[in-house]
């Protein structure tokens, strides 16, 4: 039996297969592709199957960035519309499950090694509580996870598209500037790779440096590490807004068994996330401070968490792991 798992993002897509035999199980290396290099998801899968010399997949599970509607999804940050029936018609796939990418990340929590978590806020861990998984990458993902009888059940959501709410005068100025460009400003517009670039542009303009080149997200981080003023201001704003968004999400979905910050950005800027500003903005909830204060917050440093979760779901679909 051959199982295939995929974690698809707006920037990159990662896959891993598992061959289960009577006597042994073989797990492949992780295969990565640039999502933008392919006109469709089926084209990407076809390339993967050729590269791995796979003739048939018995069970597949793919975590995808967008609202999954039964057996189809239109991706948020890619021009792809995916339908299971069309995938199976074109490719040798017997059983296919589509889940939201942050559902996959939530499933991957229990597959993580202990050293893949950094505690940002200790809180008071309650093993009987719910979980919450959030994360900024190409977009901003949110997955509420409820617990029942010791088992965790991730739910899909598009919580990253909630409207950004300023917390101080600087953020009021930022929102006013953003409203000159967009009518609706979501948290994802700021808490994402492109969001960090937007924050950098804003601080360049505030500093009167309109002629300075606009940097990509990774370049903003590198410049901030060198102490470049606009980059430091952008990354500081990013971490502050990240903290307040996580706190807002925690009010919607109390998670005393832990809030887990996944996504591609958090782990790369761990030094900044571990500073006091993140926790300060996370707790800035006035009368509700004591509510969020109870919830532990962990930063996930394993970027394969979504792939681990998708593979776990594939194993469940194949009957190799007990379903919750």
UniProtKB/TrEMBL annotation:
CDD domains: ASKHA_NBD_GLK. The keyword DNA-binding does not apply. GO terms for cellular component: cytosol. Keywords: Kinase, Transferase. One of its GO terms (molecular function) is ATP binding. Belongs to the bacterial glucokinase family. This is Glucokinase. It comes from Desulfuromonas thiophila.
